[in-house]
Write a structure and sequence with these properties.
This protein is an alpha+beta fold and 73 residues long. Helix content is 37%, strand content 18%.
Length: 73
């Protein structure tokens, strides 16, 4: 899905982490881009496969990043 998402309009990036608990955050230019990705046919198939085979539950959050900063030593 990551390779397919990278080809979608408005895709900005993706980050994943976790062992026992996995989290993936994808970044999009705007809500229109998010909705376009949500309607992607291959993405819909992957969502249904996830529901039926891999996950007991999952949570989706759509949020706006207002600011980002960090520190690297």
């Amino acid at each position: 899905m990551h390779e397919l998402a990278k080809e979608s309009p408005g895709y900005l990036g993706m980050e994943s982490a976790g062992d026992n608990f996995e989290i993936t955050v994808s970044y999009w230019k705007n809500e229109e881009s998010i909705l376009h990705w949500k309607q992607n046919a291959a993405h819909k198939v992957a969502q249904e496969t996830g529901k039926s085979k891999w996950y007991k539950a999952y949570q989706v959050r759509v949020a706006k990043v207002e600011r980002e900063y960090g520190f690297v030593n």
